Amino acid sequence: MTSPFDSPSSDPFLVFHEWLALAEKSELNDPTAAALATASKAAVPSVRMVLVKGVDARGVRFFTNTESQKGSELHENPKAAVCFHWKSLRRQVRFEGIIETQTRSEIDQYFHSRSRASQVAAAVSAQSHPLTSRATLDDAVRKFTEELGDAPVPLPETWGGFLLVPNRIEFWKDGKDRLHDRMQFTRSESGWKTQRLYP
Ligand SMILES: Cc1cc2nc3c(=O)[nH]c(=O)nc-3n(C[C@H](O)[C@H](O)[C@H](O)COP(=O)(O)O)c2cc1C
After folding, report:
1. Does some domain include residue 36?
2. What's the CA gap between 139 and 8, in Å, rounded?
3. Which is it for strands 91-101 and 159-173: parallel, antiparallel or unpaired?
4. Is 91 a catalytic residue?
5. Does any domain span residue 25?
6. What's the whole-model pTM score?
7. pLDDT in tens, 54-76
8. Does residue 23 belong to any structural domain of this protein?
9. Who's near 197: CB < 8 A, 6+ residues apart?
10. Ligand 1 and 128: CB distance under 6 A
11. What is the domain range of residue 38?
12. Does residue 109 form part of some domain?
C-alpha cells in the first residue's frame, strides 16, 4: 500500500486508486460519487454531486447535460474542483484544475454503455430547467419511448463529458485528536511536487 504521507514522491493517481479500492469495499454505495464545484463567469460558486467515471493521469472524467447549470458554468468558466469524501474511511481527496471536453466518440461510447432507461431519461431531461410537474416528465419518457420503438437512443446534442485536468491534488486522512494528515501534490514541469500541509 502506497502512503502519500510516508513516501511523498508517490504518483498521486496510484495513491488515489489504492484509496478508491478501499472505498469500494467499505462504502455503502457510490464510492465514485464526488462533489463537483463550478463557478459562473462572475465567480459565483455552485456545488453538486456527480458520479466520476474514470480517474487517470489525464484527469477526472464525468458526464452531464451541457445545458445544465454546471454545464453552462463549465462552458463560461472552464475551471472546477472535485472532492471525494469516503465516510467509511474518514478520508478525502480533492482535485482542482481546468476543464476539457471529452471527444464526441468518448461521450457516445459512454452514453450507449448505460441502460436504455438511463439513456431515455437523459434524452428527455432538460436538466436544471423548470419542470411543470412530475407527470410532464413521465409523459415525455412514455412518448419518447413509443416513438423510438426498437431503434437505438440517439446521443442527445446536450449530453456531454468533461475531463478535469488537475493542477492540484490533495489527500486528507483523519488523525487522532484532529491531527489529520494532509499531502498536497502540485503539478510542475518536472512532475508532481509534494507538500505536507498543517491540518
Ligand atoms: C450520488 C449522486 C450522483 C450524481 N451523479 C450525477 C452525474 O454523474 N451527472 C449528473 O449530471 N448529475 C448527477 N447527479 C445529480 C446532480 O447532483 C445534480 O442534481 C444535477 O446534475 C443538476 O445539477 P446542476 O443544476 O448544478 O447542473 C448525481 C447526484 C447524486 C446525489
Report:
1. yes
2. 55
3. antiparallel
4. no
5. yes
6. 0.96
7. 999 999 999 999 999 999 999 99
8. yes
9. 170, 182, 183, 184
10. yes
11. 12-57+79-100+164-197
12. no
